[in-house]
Amino acid sequence: MANQIDMTEGSIFNKLVKFSIPLVFSSFLQVLFNAVDVIVVGRFAGDNSLAAVGSTGSLVNLLVNLFMGLSIGTNVVAAHYFGAKKSKELKDTVHTAMLVSVYSGIALTIIGVFGAEYILKLMQAPKEVLDLAAVYLKIYFLGITATMVYNFGSALLRAKGDTKRPLYILSLAGILNLILNLIFVIVFKMNVAGVAIATVISQVLSAILVVRILLKEEDSFRLNLKQLKINSHILLKIVKIGIPAGCQGIMFSFSNVIIQSSINTFGAIAIAGNSAALNLEGFIYTAMNGFSQGALTFCSQNMGAKEYKRIKKAAFESQIIVFIIGALLSFIFYIFLDLLLGFYTTSPEVVLAGRKRLIIILSTYYLCGMMDTMANCIRGIGHSLAPVIITLIGACLFRMFWIFTIFQIPKFHTETVIYLSYPISWAVTFLALLFTFVKFYKKIGKQEI
Fold first, then answer.
1. What radius of gyration do the chain's Cα atoms show?
2. Which of 311, 330, 386, 415 has the most CB atoms lying inside 10 A of its own CB?
3. Is residue 242 within 8 Å of 74, Cβ to Cβ?
4. Would you give the end-to-end CA distance of the chain in angstroms?
5. How far apart are CA 19 and CA 387, in angstroms?
6. Mean local confidence (pLDDT), 152-156
């Protein structure tokens, strides 16, 4: 009981905060240690290495997000059964999900290792960056199964409100990643290969620790390796929620790949500046996303318990929290913009390139968090397809339309014009998702996930 939160009763605000704060710190640590990767190569291996590691993010997300969507489906289904007190179904969910995580990792390893270089060429990666980026990606995807196991395992723990132990795991893995980064890159001069190897080793540790926790659980979340098998009924439920969620992530990533490809045409300095800016944005995003994930689990548990009024209140309170966090952190980052970018590089040109992005993004970044939170509220009450369609039209297709039309006009062919596509797409998509949530909420209780 100490490692779970029943969100079907008690103060909504207090439980949202209690659940989300450890998740915020967990996500913060992930971004922090990823920042260490970028800072170490930027400082000790040069701008090309910084560009190589930073430019792979959108491609990694593109390949991984479909399977990460299944972990979201796992969280929703497990939280639903936890709220409904259905122990047998919950037990089947645990064993199905963990086996799916292994299969997902194997599939991603094959795709990533053999397709990385080809996709990077399609993205118009500059010659001075291409080989380094390919090396990084191939090593990274060799260890992707461990990443999948950790993410599915932590999704199961979050389903019962346990966000503390995943935080402890990431703390240990992150410290290991930091130490190995410094050793491999600074001492052994392994460049981007050292960063990738350090990441893989730390992810393996994360996977081992989360599996160890599940093996020792005393409730329906306990994992028994002898009982690992796919329950087709449970898998269908996970897929019903997870595939649309994954497709939404893929579409976001695809539009970001198009944007990254456009930025690549401006050369290594622009890529490095964009990479540093993206990394800084990650700190703000994870703070907002922690409460967005809290809204997902909260809505799922209360949907299972049929506590529908609590869902409406949680959706409203989580949006207020995300807005305040996003706006406040963006303001703080804006004040210290040059100082923060200076951690990543000693090049004034790279800092200037990073400023071009951040000045635009930080002004409305809270909209991104509110958009994600609204999508998770809809997902939590059992509708996963609607957020995908809305995101496809409001964000992804809009951004691609922007790149292939506005950006192609000679006088608008600038990095600044590329970045303007973000806040406009966030605003349009958030409003559409808000309207959709209200529409579905009025029908709530008439369907089950």
1. 21
2. 311
3. yes
4. 26
5. 24
6. 94
User: According to DSSP H, which parts of 123-163 are helical?
Assistant: 127-142, 144-159
The one-letter code for the residue type at 232 is: S
Q: What is the pLDDT of residues 266-285, one digit of tens each?
A: 888 888 888 889 888 988 98
pLDDT confidence bin for 207, thresholds 50/70/90: very high
Contact 368, 288 (CB under 8 A): yes
What mean pLDDT do residues 167-181 have?
90
Tokens for 206, please give them.
């994360």
For 201, what's the count of Cα atoms within 13 Å in the CB-facing half-sphere?
Answer: 14
The C-alpha atoms of residue 310 and residue 286 are separated, in whole angstroms, by 24
Spell out a b/e string for 318-357, using b for 16 or more CB atoms within 10 Å of the CB, else e.
Answer: bbebbbebbbebbeebeeebeebbbebbebeebbebbbbb
Amino acid at 155: A
**Which string of b and e fits 168-178 if b means at least 16 CB within 10 Å?**
ebbeebbebbb
Distances 369 to 288, 385, 436 between C-alpha atoms, Å: 5, 19, 17
If you ran DSSP here, which 8-state letter would residue 412 be given?
A: G
For residue 449, pLDDT over 50 is answered with no
- Region 134-149: what's the mean pLDDT? 93
If pLDDT is split at 50, 70 and 90, which confidence band does 38 have?
confident
Q: Assess contact for 384 and 77: CB atoms under 8 A.
A: no
Give the relative orientation of helices 12-44 and 191-215 as an angle to the nearest 10 degrees.
150
Average per-residue pLDDT in the chain? 87
